[in-house]
Prior knowledge:
Elements: H1 3-8, H2 12-27, E1 39-46, E2 49-56, H3 62-79
Amino acid sequence: MDIKELLNNMSAEDKASIVKEVINGAACFTPPIKDAPYINVMFCKQQEEWAAFFGYGADIDPQTTVKFIQRIGDATDVLNGKEE
């Protein structure tokens, strides 16, 4: 049985539990080296669309930060089939 079949056979409660587990696991992520710069990006399916959640712990200048956010938005659009 592949993952799509498993998901189709799961109850809404089971699906919600898995999503919660993934989000909690991602929220607990710590860089492998203390005070090391990091960038976390996680894409989650919500209702019918994908959404991006990200965070970073690095010194990034404002211009680069804007580019980073735009790229994450572009990736989300691709996942949602809204690529230009």
